[in-house]
Design goal:
heterodimer; A: 255 residues; 6-stranded mixed β-sheet; 4-stranded antiparallel β-sheet; 10 strands; globular; B: 395 residues; mainly alpha; 16 helices
């Protein structure tokens, strides 16, 4: 059984078909890349998977259950968490607090006990705080734990988004252009980190990226989208030499 | 250990203040008595609106409506129950709880549309809700129409008023200390991202409205019993705006700010009741001088990078120039026939109030406390800094 399966997912905005009958399946432990030129429908695919948009037709299966049309927060509870292309951190909160919001999914104490400041609620918040701190350390962000997230550097903000998503302890982690705007060293660091996340936390990772070298060196399987349609799928070596992919990126003449 | 002792210290201070208040109350006049009660109610109102506006980021400008629902619930209840019951000692606290429940239901009803609306649109809905409540109260025979209803027993429970304020502050603060509270802040910052983290945005918003309006409703019941009378005028639109001003002036999101701003904004207009009357021309010259001083102070604070002494010098200088402007302008301006009318002192206070607000917002738009809170740790670090300065050790 696949962890995630898109079955002929299609979404139309008025007359525009943003994603047209895309199907793919992710197995547990995959490092899967989603690439394509600008406007190919990659982020829209993410939005369908995480429930921000419901597909016009087709279905999405996660862990053997149909999750088409499930609300966003329910999907996060099922174990899919994402980062955003245009960083959406909680700006006024510190790094640690951002990650703690991610860990909220695992809270057990009721709101009433939190409002009365009862010992179980205090203890739980303390535990989640320590857990979040460990996660920040793992992503080399412990030094900026008490800094407002809006004041972090761009690369740190991207890493913090990953930390926040990981705090929900998802089975499937979706990364939307995690390396955008990073310098070569930061990309190298990110590459190591994503691998570590997959190996140590046994997460499945699906990522969108424009940096070809980054994708090719990191991902084990890649799906190429163009104008909302799948044009190729397979291991990086095959994708590199696929004439359709080259045509989509460089124009027909180069194919 | 330190944590526990700090907490004990906070609770001890709160109890000591309540005892002092209760002990001193008998020596106060009825007027002061009412003022202390109203100040406590405004603290509750501001802190509870801060929960909706500041912490959860739902721009509501109809908070007086929840206050009104609470007050009228208490009023109707008092008219319905047998006098023997309403004379019992626990009657007012019970009425307070029932009013809180009624207002919470109203909050739930208003919270529902807020799921779809943001910012200005939500503000209009909450304002509309306020108007609806006010119009219902003005037109229902059972609610006394424009005249209102008298509430028995008339009982000013100062301790209960301030206990409610303390509970309201404690609940807000406990919320922020917990991971639950962080999700409220997260909803304020980014709804899409918080729902992607598994936060039920709908639930958070409705919870904020229900909690905030429950406290406002409880305050309404204590107002009704404290004054012994409710009428639609006591809950007009401007009450909503004054509560909102308290929240913004204190620093949106800061509980400390809301509390202090509530007391100040309540106290300033009361204090100004005995202002001297003056001619319009005199008033005009004062306003011109104030505009000048504020403009200079703002420029100095924002753009001038001198030593503190120099800054203070410029500010004092500008105040002196301002005084000079007043003395030069007051004669010629007052002699203009159109500006010769006399403004009564009692009417002046709202002018002064408004000018104070304008100045404060110009000089500190983020509010008195911005997003900071009072804490023992903050006090400690302040003391340490002060000590270091005295000894002369660089920080």
């Amino acid at each position: 059984m696949s962890l995630l399966k898109l079955d002929c997912a299609t979404i139309k905005f008025g007359g525009l078909v943003a994603v047209n009958s895309v199907s793919f399946a992710l197995e547990t432990g995959d490092l899967f890349g989603l690439i394509g030129p600008n406007g190919a429908g990659k982020t829209t695919c993410f939005n369908i998977i995480t429930g921000i948009y419901a597909p016009t037709s087709g279905s999405i299966w996660f862990n053997g259950a149909d999750i088409t049309g499930t609300p966003v927060n329910k999907i996060a509870q099922l174990g899919i968490c994402r980062t955003f292309q245009n960083i959406r951190l909680f700006k006024a909160l510190t790094s640690l607090e951002n990650v703690m919001v991610g860990s909220y999914l695992r809270h057990k104490s009721t709101l009433a006990s939190a409002l009365c400041h009862l010992p179980p609620a205090i203890r739980e918040s303390q535990e989640l705080r320590e857990e979040s701190m460990r996660l920040l350390t793992a992503l080399e962000l412990d030094e900026v734990a008490d800094v407002r997230s809006a004041d972090l550097s761009y690369g740190m903000q991207r890493r913090l988004e990953i930390a926040r998503a990981m705090a929900t302890q998802p089975k499937l982690l979706l990364l939307d252009e995690p390396a955008a705007g990073m310098n070569p060293q930061e990309k190298e660091q990110l590459n190591r980190m994503v691998r570590k996340i997959r190996d140590e936390h046994s997460m499945t990772v699906l990522l969108i990226e424009h940096d070809m070298r980054f994708v090719m060196s990191l991902c084990e399987r890649i799906l190429v989208l163009d104008h909302g349609e799948e044009i190729a799928q397979g291991p990086p070596a095959d994708i590199k030499n696929d004439p359709k992919v080259i045509a989509a990126y460089l124009g027909e003449d180069h194919a | 250990m330190i944590f526990a002792s700090r907490r004990a210290l906070s609770i001890c201070i709160a109890i000591a203040l309540c005892v002092l208040l209760q002990a001193g109350i008998r020596s106060f006049s009825d007027y002061v008595h009412t003022l202390i009660m109203l100040a406590g109610l405004y603290v509750t109102l501001a802190v509870s609106l801060n929960l909706i506006n500041g912490i959860t980021g739902q721009f509501s400008i109809g908070h007086a409506a929840f206050y009104q629902v609470g007050a009228y619930t208490a009023g109707v209840l008092a008219a319905k129950v047998h006098p023997a019951v309403s004379q019992l000692i626990w009657y007012v606290p019970l009425a307070m709880i029932l009013s809180a429940v009624a207002a919470a239901i109203a909050g739930f009803v208003v919270g529902l549309p807020s799921l779809r609306l943001k910012g200005d649109y939500l503000a209009i809905v909450t304002m509309g809700f306020g108007q609806i409540i006010s119009i219902i109260a003005r037109n229902q025979e059972a609610l006394g129409k424009a005249y209102g209803i008298s509430v028995n027993p008339k009982q000013q429970m100062i301790w209960l008023v301030w206990l409610l304020a303390v509970i309201c502050i404690a609940v807000s603060r406990n919320l922020l200390k917990n991971v639950h509270g962080l999700t409220f802040l997260a909803v304020r910052e980014d709804e899409v991202a918080s729902s992607a983290m598994g936060v039920n945005v709908t639930r958070v918003k409705v919870t904020a409205f229900v909690l905030g309006s429950a406290f406002a409703g409880a305050a309404g019941a204590l107002f009704a019993h404290g004054v012994g009378f409710v009428s639609p005028d006591a809950f007009a639109m401007d009450v909503s705006f004054i509560i909102l001003t308290m929240v913004v002036l204190g620093g949106t999101g800061s509980i400390t700010g809301s509390t202090i701003a509530a007391v100040l904004l309540f106290y300033i207009p009361e204090k100004m009741r005995d202002l001297t009357s003056m001619k319009v021309g005199m008033l005009l010259s004062i306003v011109i001088a104030l505009v000048f001083v504020v403009a200079v102070v703002k420029r100095v604070l924002d753009h001038y990078h001198g030593t503190l002494l120099k800054k203070a010098g410029i500010i004092v200088g500008s105040i002196l120039v301002g005084l000079a402007i007043i003395s030069v302008l007051k004669k010629p301006l007052s002699s203009v026939p159109a500006l010769g009318t006399i403004v009564e002192g009692s009417k002046m206070r709202m002018v002064v109030f408004a000018v104070t607000l304008v100045i404060l917002m110009l000089l500190r738009p983020q509010g008195m406390f911005a997003q900071h809170e009072f804490s023992w740790r903050w006090l400690q670090s302040l003391l340490q800094r002060f000590k270091r300065k005295k000894v002369g050790v660089p920080a």
